[in-house]
Amino acid sequence: MEPTRRLEPAKRRRSNTRARLLAGALEVFAERGFHGASVEDICERAGFTRGAFYSNFGSKDELVLALFQATTDRLLEQIEALLPDLASQPGTLLDAVLSLLDETAPDQRQWHLISAEFTLHALRDPDAAEALNKQRTMFRESLTRLVEQITETSGTTLTVPAEQFVRMVIAVHEGARSQSLLEPGEVPAGSLEHTFLPMVLEAVSRPSR
Amino acid sequence: MEPTRRLEPAKRRRSNTRARLLAGALEVFAERGFHGASVEDICERAGFTRGAFYSNFGSKDELVLALFQATTDRLLEQIEALLPDLASQPGTLLDAVLSLLDETAPDQRQWHLISAEFTLHALRDPDAAEALNKQRTMFRESLTRLVEQITETSGTTLTVPAEQFVRMVIAVHEGARSQSLLEPGEVPAGSLEHTFLPMVLEAVSRPSR
DNA sequence: TGTATTTAATACAGAACTGTATCCTACTCC
DNA sequence: GGAGTAGGATACAGTTCTGTATTAAATACA
Hints:
Chains A, B: Pfam families: TetR_C_6, TetR_N. The structure is a homodimer of 209-residue chains. By secondary structure, the first copy, chain A, is mostly helical.
């Protein structure tokens, strides 16, 4: 109907292979790491040959960047979708924050692997660091706004800046997840967060003047 | 004098090149990651050619294992040396624990990179996971004993198992260090730990009956 | 001092990976 | 339905890496 209609099939094909390549890369990076995965590995996983790859990306580095962007975009979208519910609806402050941290990562293990890989990459490459920090900042700001909204509506004040508190929650979450994945039997997912973070929240909470 | 005297020079030469190769590997792994570092890179850094490498190690994997063992041994030795002082001497419980975490890692950045690399490796390889968990367990047990000693002598009881508390401290420490390294300006090293962990300790401390 | 042994350098063969150039196929559009 | 184009496969050249086999040097030992 619309002129775009006629153009779609061709464009859709292209963006579909891009998507499949990105999805394949995600899997292979999680399994073998960034350096351990060859372009060939990625293509094979996606069901293509390297012809398709180099027709869509200039290099593995470029794909990594695209993958990071795609992941970031999806993540921030999800947050935007979840925020209103969490801010208004039922549970406590911590439930809201922790569920946001969890629900944005359907597969904890894969997400952690990819995330750790990116972080390591960023610690070595200033450009990657800037991109990662930009993403983390936006993520953190969303969480901070969430915390501020909930404390306000519940008549509570924090004795530290909300962002500082969010940083602490993130630190605990990441450190605890690492332990849970290394020793699934010893450290059930979420146990450290749910044991100790309420104590922290309690310690920094005061009823509003 | 002793018969060992006569044997030393030859053995010393060999173990010296092993040590230099291990030291070179540590640097190169920190810079480019485990997969990103070639055997050649490591040899070059250590001032050898691959001949020396393959005369001392069967493969890069074998060297990684040896490096992990050497690092672990050194770490546990250091702990043994530090524990008595920390347990008896001056400051608070948290100062003792945190200083143990810090002083065992002279170069925070390099240590974090290597540590993260090993962890990532362990999350993919069950054998590496077992080795890493064994080391982490011993490290954690040392910290737990330290906590137990200090609480006892100070007439305090914890409302959670000491090990659980130690796990929390480790989680915060690792998560916070990651943030500090990514954003040195925004998160000074140790700031999150020193802001929030005292609150946690306070919350789980009770005077002994 | 001379011989044997150990250690590391050098030379080499093979494998894996990358990136490009070319070809084929399936759409698009007239 | 036929020419033109875009997407992806195939083939190839060049590089890098690994691991081994051989050689040279240093050390031990007599």
